[in-house]
Amino acid sequence: MSILSGKKIILGITGGIAAYKCVEFARALTQAGAKVRVVMTDAAKAFVTPMTLQAVSHYPVHDDLFDPEAEAAMGHIQLARWADAVVVAPASADFIARLIHGRSNDLLSTLCLATNAPLVVAPAMNQQMWTNAATRANLTQLAQRGVTVCGPASGIQACGDVGPGRMLEPPELLTHLENIFTPKLLAGTRVLVTAGPTREPFDPVRYLSNYSSGKMGYAMAAAAAAAGAEVVLVSGPVALEAPVGTRQVKVETALEMLAAVMQEVKSCQLFISTAAVADYRFEEVADSKHKKAQDNLQLNLMPNPDILAQVASLPNPPMTIGFAAETDNVLAAARTKLKTKKIDMIVANQVGIPDQGFDSDTNIVTLISQEGEQAFPPMLKTQLARELINYFSERLR
Ligand code: CTP
Q1: For residues 388 and 347, is the Cβ–Cβ distance under 8 A?
Q2: pLDDT for 169
Q3: What phi and psi values does residue 16 have, to the nearest 5 degrees?
């Protein structure tokens, strides 16, 4: 179940082309189980229609401060009190300026002034407007007042410019909102996560690797960040964006991953090793491409260091969590790894079957520690990550 289930969210839409993204965002909110009331400024209605937002939020849109009928149903103060969070997306430069001055010259600005609920803004504007000193100063003040500012992203803009000012995509915005409601069980904690595969080259164009997608590790990093931890994510090559609130260090080989981990691990309280580190690397890496020949090709492999075991053997190790990917005798093999690597806990999961392990969105795992074993039912990796992070944070305390 989403953490947003049952949460009462006011979605404020201001005037900007990014308003079209709000249709999808409102839909994502309702699908997550949130109760959504949409408030639109007049300018917003130039970009999307209230009818569309009514259809996806399942409620009539609020747009008029002085509408007696709307006030009789749920007045603006009632609406401000009703909300668990107010999200303004897109937040135009003008609306941000009005927020800064505490204006209440339309329904949305009045609501923002009258609510006690957390305020989230997702700015969207032309890159020149975004970098303008006035906007910069306004944004600094907003953050100082405790408003959560999400984004913007950089890229090609509707006006043809390239630069910062694109509204975050709905899934990213949803994550920011989920994070607001997630208990901060790891506040003040530094967490290091490894994720994805490593690549071991044998010439400039070829390498040895595995099928790891990085999804479990990225979900762990995201869940730790949502729980308030400072998260460093050391990642092998994957096709995923760094989760909101994490610092990503990109590596290719096991040796690079080891170096990055040793650099970062000193001040960490929790080390989560989800990376599928290649156990071997090539003894020699050619400077130029191997040419095809009729004979068999012989390449010698040598063992890579065990990063997790090295962290666990540090003088003052953090709490160490391993992930065992197995095709056979899953639990027995994981128990052995727990002992030989001398780690605190290991998450055992079977790989090589559909809907589990590498590249799937779901996983079925058993958490093994010295104290016992806990089997988790099948669930999304994102949800599993949240449950595991809750468990680890309890143990840390
Ligand atoms: N691991 C590591 N460094 C390695 C190999 C593994 O840090 N060189 C970590 C993984 O990130 C994982 C745990 O050790 O948390 C178990 O990894 P796994 O691949 O299941 O086991 P291996 O130790 O590689 O043993 P085997 O390949 O024989 O199953």
Answers
A1: yes
A2: 93
A3: 180, 155
Kindly tell me if the per-residue pLDDT of 373 is higher than 90.
yes
Report the helix count and the strand count for the chain, using DSSP H and E. 14, 21
What domains lie within the chain, and their CATH numbers?
8-181 (3.40.50.1950), 190-396 (3.40.50.10300)
Is the pLDDT at 355 greater than 80? The verdict is no
Q: Distance (Å, rounded) from C-alpha 276 to C-alpha 236?
A: 9
Burial state string for 201-233 with b = 16 or more CB within 10 A and e = fewer than 16: bbbeeebbbbebbbbbbbbbbbbbbbbbbbbbb
Task: Ligand 1, residue 321: give the atom nearest the CA.
Answer: 15
Indicate if ligand 1 lies below 6 Å from the C-beta of 306.
Answer: yes
Average pLDDT for 386-390: 94
For ligand 1, atom 24, name the residue with the nearest CA.
279
Residue 70 has pLDDT above 80, yes or no: no
Catalytic annotation present for 150? no
